[in-house]
Amino acid sequence: MTVLETKGLTMRFGGLTAVSNFNLKLEKGELVGLIGPNGSGKTTVFNMITGFYRPTEGHIFLNGSEITGLRPDQVASLGIVRIFQNSRLFSELSVLENVLIGHHVRLRSSPFAAVFRAPGYVKQEDQAYDEATALLEGLGLLGVVSEVAGSLPYGLQRKLEVARALATKPSLLLLDEPATGMSAEETSEMMNFILGVRDDFDMTILLIEHHMRVVMGICERMAVLNYGKTIAKGNPEEIQNNPDVIEAYLGAEA
Fold first, then answer.
1. Within a domain: residue 84?
2. Are 24 and 207 a contacting pair, CB within 8 Å?
C-alpha cells in the first residue's frame, strides 16, 4: 500500500529553483532516508509535503488522495506529522501535557463544549489522557511523565517530540535530523528508538539526517538530493558506492 507519493515536485523562489522534479513513493512500513549536502533542498521537500510551502509545480498524494496545497493543520489532521531539526517542545509544560497537545488534533468537541465542560468533551479528555499515558509507557517515557519537558536531557526531549507526533495518530512520520547534537551512545539509542517506533506502531517514516551512521544503519533505501535535483536512489550499499553521491559530498577529486 502506497502511503505517500510525490510527482514532479518543484519549488521556485523567484529565479532560484530550490527543488526540481522530485519524485518519491513510500510504501506502508518503510523507513526511507532523504540525504544530501547542506542546501540541497531536503527541508524544502519536507515543507512542501507538510503544507508549509505550496509547490510551484507537482502533486502530493497521501493514501491515494491528493493533498497538494493544503494548510499544515489540514495535512496534520489527514495523517502527516513531523519533528523539526530544532526542538519545538512546550518547555514549561510537563511531558504528559506535551503529548496531550498532540491529541488535540483528534478532538471533535466545539470550543463551547470545552469551555463549559460538556460530558462529551470530558469523555474525550479522559480518553486522551489514557491514550497519552499508554503511549508514553510504550515508548519507555512513563518514568518522566510528570517532569517539565525543558528539564529533560536532550535525547529524551527528542523522544518526547516523537511521542507528541505519534499522539496525532499519523500514517506518515517525517523526522528532520533527529540525532543532531547527540553523543555516540545517544545516537545508537535514537537509532534503536526509531526502529522500534516503525515496528511497534507499524509506522511509515521519512528521515532527513546528516549523520551517515544513522541513515546507513536504519534506512532500507534512500534518495539523494544535490542542488535541488535527485542524483541517486537506492539501498545503503548502492548509495555509498554511487560516484555522483561521492562527488556531491566530497568533491570531484574524491
1. no
2. no
| For the chain, counts of helices (H) and of strands (E) | 10, 10
Length of the chain: 254
pTM over 0.85: yes
Residues 45, 97 share a domain? no
pLDDT for residue 253: 47
**One domain for residues 55 and 118:** no
pLDDT at 14 over 70: yes
Bridge partner residues of 12 (DSSP): 17
Give the tens place of pLDDT for each residue, 17-68: 999 999 999 999 999 999 999 999 999 999 999 999 999 999 999 999 999 9
Task: Please say which residue of 163, 182, 206 terminates a domain.
Answer: 163
Enclosing domain of residue 142: 89-163
d(CA 244, CA 252): 9
C-alpha cell at 216: 546507513
Q: Of 163, 181, 215, which residue sits at a domain end? A: 163
Considering only CA atoms, give the Rg of the chain.
19
Q: What cell was used for 142?
A: 512513563
User: For the chain, first and last CA: distance in Å?
Assistant: 40
